[in-house]
Amino acid sequence: MNKDTYPFLNLEGDFIYAFVSEGIRGKILKAVLISPLPYHPEKHFNPLFNLGFGDVVRDDEEWTLDDSVRSGNGDMPKVIATVARIAMEFLRKHPDCALSFQGYIDQKSVLHGKNHRNVLYQRGINSNWAELSVEFTFWGGKAGNFEKYVVGNQYDQILVKIK
Amino acid sequence: MNTHMEKHKEMESEAWMEELLKDKERIIAAIKNSPGLQRRNREAAEMLSKLKPPFPWDDHYAQKKD
Fold first, then answer.
1. Is there a contact between A28 and A39 (Cβ–Cβ < 8 Å)?
2. A29 confidence band (pLDDT: 50, 70, 90)
3. pLDDT tens-digit series, residues B41-55
4. CB A154 within 8 Å of CB A143
5. Per its UniProt record, what InterPro entries does this chain match (chain A) (predicted)?
6. How many angstroms away from the CA of A127 is the closest CA of chain B?
7. Which residues of chain B have pLDDT under 50?
8. Are A156 and B40 in contact (CB under 8 A)?
9. What is the domain partition of chain A in residue ranges?
10. pLDDT confidence of residue A18
11. What is the structure's pLDDT at B2?
12. Which residues in A lie closer than 8 A to residue B41 (C-beta atoms)?
């Protein structure tokens, strides 16, 4: 995936990463958290992690991470490509792990009947499918049902694992 | 020219992040304790816990065993 991405830092273990988005609203600190999900041996995935990300902001003296914001920094494709690069690096380092990720449903998403961030994730996957599908296996979930990822279908949740 | 400008921008961003990361421990705590991310983890776990076989990844794991 030869997309333009931001350089990122690994803050803790292989589970917390940070990078700086730079766009029309200036510099915004972004963080990615990869968290373990409960183990269900009968469902094969062991271990399974969930990927989430958002903006790290300082309000007075308090730091918070807001994963529901639209930063409006004009660089969403580059941000998503950076998150994808982090996910790929994690999966290469941990080939037995699978990653789950989903976007968020905000007002605009509801209005358009789409999960906006997932649309961007999927646009990234679909436009790089020839390359990604050689190294990774994807599954897509909608309304609680998963299938092997089909380019063009829209999903609420995506699972990915190295082949 | 562009590459030079991009490199400069990148260095500026790195310096900016380094400055912020003086507060690294508190930033890490904020990330880990983010209610939004915790809620999303719960939702993902819940969705996966409800799945019933056959799973679309059975083939993948069967092939790995072989």
1. no
2. very high
3. 998 888 888 887 777
4. no
5. DUF6934 (IPR053865)
6. 23
7. none
8. no
9. 9-162
10. 94
11. 62
12. 35, 37, 50, 52
